[in-house]
Each structure stands twice: as C-alpha cells, then as structure tokens.
Amino acid sequence: MRPTEETARQMSAEAAEQPLLLYALSVFAMFGCLALAASILIADIVVPHHDWIADTISDLGAGRYELIVDTGLYAFSAALIGLAVLAAHVHLGAWDWSIGIISVVVFGLLVFLIGGRNEYGDNDNDGWVIQTYLVYALGAAMAVACFSMARGAARASPRYRTILSCPHRVVQVKC
Q1: What pTM, to 2 d.p., does this model score?
Q2: What pLDDT, on the 0 to 100 scale, is given for residue 76?
Q3: Shortest CA distance to 101 belongs to which of 76, 78, 80?
C-alpha cells in the first residue's frame, strides 16, 4: 500500500531518538544484572549445606530453593532481551550489528531456558539433560554478540571495539 498525503501528515518520515525509552531500557538491563547477582547471594545464604567455593550456581538453582536463583535468571533474561531492544533502537552498525542483536535475544532466551528447564545440579537422570548444551550455546551466543557488535560500538568509542573483540588486549597479564 502506497503512502498517501494523509499518512505523511499523521506520521513524520523522520525518526527521532526516544531518550526516555533508552534510559528506561538501560536501567532495566542494569536491574536484571543486579537481580541475578542478588538472587545468587541470597541463595548462597539461604540454601543449607551450600559451599560457596566448591558448589556451583547450578547447585543453587536445583532443589527446594530453586525459585530464588530462577527468579534472578528470569530477570536477567528479560534484561538481555530489553538490551536487544535498546540496541535495535539505536542500531550503530550494518549487518553485523543486526546479527549481534539477534545473538543477544538468543542469549536471553537461552538464559530463560536454563532457568526454566531445571535440569542441573540435582543429579536428576530423568529425560534428556540439556543444560550442558544450553551453556555451550550461551557461550557461543555471547561470543557472536560481542564480536559482531564491536565495529558498531566503535562509533561510540574506539575502546569499545577493543573491549568487545580483543579481551586479551584490555587486560594484559605479565608473568
């Protein structure tokens, strides 16, 4: 359907940044990260016989107190998807930025699946245990997101490209 004069009058062809939306999505992303960290710390305190050093987060996400860590994982998942919406709104790149946005969405969905599947930490052998595969996919999605968004992030600061694409250059370890 072709645009008409009425369409042009109702909706401007110019797209404007929505700073309030960007701010809200940024705060939402930070809240999701803080919620995950807080849920893990709370579960560390609440779960009996949990060794902070020897046990894993997966151990906290299984059993009677699983809701604590799962809630943090869900908040983090929502934050990642909100972050993808934010990145799509300001779109700093070309095709590689778009791939990065899709990778962040996949990353968020994988975090959600890890929290929702509950197939970890409890030595449960019923059915197909997919946590290992989801964690590998999570690592791949994170790597793809970082590498594909590095060039676009360089438009904001050249340092962001270095941080996202070459982590060994950011932290130099001297032996």
Answers
A1: 0.80
A2: 96
A3: 80
